[in-house]
Structure formats: C-alpha cells, structure tokens
Amino acid sequence: MGDSRKPAVEVTDLRKSYGEVTALKGVSLTIEGGEYFVLLGPSGGGKTTLLRLLGGFIKPTKGRILLHGQDVSNLPPNRRGTSMVFQSYALFPHMTVARNVGYGLRLRKLRQKDIDERVESMLNMVGLRDYGTRMPYELSGGQQQRVQLARALVLESDILLLDEPLAALDAKLRKDMCFELKHLQEKVGITFVHVTHNQDEAMAVADRIAIIADGELIEAGSAREIYEDPVRRFTAGFIGENNILEGTIAEKDGGTVVVDVGFGKVSVKERSQSAKVGMAASFSVRSERMRLLDKSERRNGRYQALPAKYREEIYLGLVTRHLVALPDGRELSVRAVSDIDEAVRFELGEEVLVGWRTEDGKLHLS
With helix as H, strand as E and coil as C, how does 114-125 read? Predict the structure, then answer.
C-alpha cells in the first residue's frame, strides 16, 4: 500500500501530444488518498488521456506523475499500484465469473487456496456471492460491470482508475450503479479516479470534480462548489442548466459590480478584486434560481430583474420550464416545481419581469 501521509496522485505540468495535436496542455492537480475524484468534461477534452497517463498506458510528452510520492512518469502499468476498469466490460467469454475475477491473481502466481478466498470475498463485496460458476453471457450489463470491478479490486491496488465505467448501461441502471460505486469505494477505502462526460453520474459519486476540456483543467472543487459557485464561464455553461448573460462592468461598489447588458443594468457580487470598470464580463444564474416576479417581489429590492416576453411553457413532470425572450432576443429558462401555483398562467408574448436574488448571480471574468 502507498504512504497514506502523501497525496495519492500529484500531477505537474502534464502534457501529451500526438504529432501536431496536443491532447493535454500542462495539467496540474492533486488527489488525496481515499478520495473519489471525477474527471468530467465533454468528449475529446483530454480526460481519458489523463487517466491513461496515470495508469501508464501512454507516456507523457512532458510533466511529472507522482503516485503516493513516487515518480512513476515512465513506469509501466504493472509497477504503478493502479488497476483499471474499462468502458467495455473486457471479460473473458470462455471463463467463469470466478476465473475472470481471479485472472490477475493467477498471473501473480498466488496459491490457488489464496486465490479462491480472495475471489469469494470480492464477489461477496460486489453483490455476486452466488455467481462464481456463471459465464459472462449469463449476466446482465450491471452484473458484468460488477465482475470487472471485482477483478480490478481483488488485486488490492492503491488506486482504481475507471474509464467511463457506466457508459454502456441504461439510465436507471446507471443511477443505481452510481450509488453502488460510491458505497463500494467507501468500503474498500482506496482512491477512485473516475472519467465520465455524464454530469449526473459525476455529481452522484464525487468527493471532488475536475472539469477537463480542450486539454486543460478548467477548474476543480466539490460537487456542490462546481454546481453552486462556478468560477469559470465554461463550467457554468457545462454543468446543469444555467442562464449566462454577457455585458460590461459599468460600476464597482463595495464588493458588488454593476453589469450593463445593453437593455438594463444588474448588480452581481464580486468574487475578487480583479474586476475593473469597462471590462467585459459575464454572469450566470441557474434556471431554478430564476423567477417570474409578481408585483410585490418587484418592489421589495431583493431581486435583480430584467424585462422579457413570455415565450413557452414546457411541462417536464416534477418541474416546468418557462422560456422567456429578452429585448435583444436572447432566451432565458426559468425552472419551477410543477403546479406549485396553478393560478399563475402566462400568455405567449406577455410582458413579464424575470428576476433572481443578487447572491444567486455568479460573475465570470474568464
């Protein structure tokens, strides 16, 4: 096992190029021991490249990788103390479940008695206690993924790398497996590094999330920080349903800036002291934080507000989306719990005022 006093993963200025194509552009990050860490981003953004660099399946063009304090930048996968779970189940179709799980232990030439004991224990842990004699084709997708997890975990590596492990599952099974993965990680207590493009999946399992796009680390933080308080404009646009408006900083006043969006001015809390009058800026407001204001709310001073015209209502079951158009044609989305006030109805083209609490607007300078 690695040194628990050191971070599990330390990556410094990591770069990977394929000819003239740069897949990773100087990424630096730290992952603590026992953390469930998710690399989240759009397809082709570099997250799988980063995971494969951690596992030793490819070598970096530049930069350094430390695993539990040891420089492994140029070591092969079998000398890194990591195990990998792939997007495809990669099970041997001619082997039973038990033989699949014990495959790596046989390569290490352990005694058969020890292999049997560890395989039985691991199958029990992943909820497949009575499945050892079955063949892969007799299993569901979720069960096959559990077998692959057991095969990786039975090696007792310090770090488990998961490359889109739930991508092949349907939506309901993926949701169920998210909870199983999180509980499993808490049981074994090792570091999980999980790649996905699915935001719901990332939010369900992660202690911390790193947003990776265009080969760069955009930002990192807890799931709540990434969702509720994104620093970068890209993060605000990528995570969840956000309304983003661009404008110019017109005023600064005691930790608040006034952003001119062309047809109105709104106040936004300043994140740092780097904003300057005249600077281009954007701000975001989550759709569930926006409201179509009634007369009393317009007067109480708690809300920032902009004029709009009502465009459409979209019923989605638990919530209803209200789409409104700003004077310049930009569209905003307001999400509210369905039927919370059945008396409130809006007509197409009706003039409305869309608003949000000042603290719910998040300023983005990059």
Answer: HHHHHHHHHHHH
- Fold exhibited by the domain 9-233: Rossmann fold (3.40.50)
Please report, in tens digits, the pLDDT of each residue of the chain (366 residues total).
455 557 999 999 999 999 999 999 999 999 999 999 999 999 999 999 999 999 999 999 999 999 999 999 999 998 999 999 988 778 999 999 999 999 999 999 999 999 999 999 999 999 999 999 999 999 998 899 899 999 999 999 999 999 998 888 888 888 888 998 999 999 999 999 999 999 999 999 999 999 999 999 999 999 999 999 999 999 999 999 999 999 999 999 888 999 999 999 999 999 877 889 999 999 999 999 999 987 666 666 788 999 999 999 999 999 999 999 999 999 999 998 887 655 467 889 999 999 999 999 999 998
The residues spanned by each domain of the chain are 9-233, 241-364
CATH top class, domain 241-364: mainly beta
> Residue 170 and residue 167: Cα distance in Å, rounded?
8
